[in-house]
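Researcher: Here's the sequence for the chain we discussed earlier.
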Amino acid sequence: MTEDLKRERRQYDRQFKMDAVKYWSSSGKSAKTICEELGIPGPDYLKRWKKELKKKGGESAFPGHGNKIGPDAEFAHLRKQLRDVAEERDILKKALAILSRY
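Model: Thanks. This is the structure I predict for it:
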């Protein structure tokens, strides 16, 4: 594949998405026009952002890559804590087995 065929996927931050949706809602322009003005690849992006913003509300919308919110974040944190404690336990078991030989 040549370099010109590879396109890097652009990432948009949370504030940009919120501003783009707000601009679209208040301007009366079409989604295609807004996308051309802001450099967004297509109207599907804008429509998806509007849907997510409406569904999840202001603070919960667009959490980013791997940034969980609410109960999901707590659950992920507790799973990591459990993994860490289990690993520590296994290390201590091995150390006890080694020390009990002497």
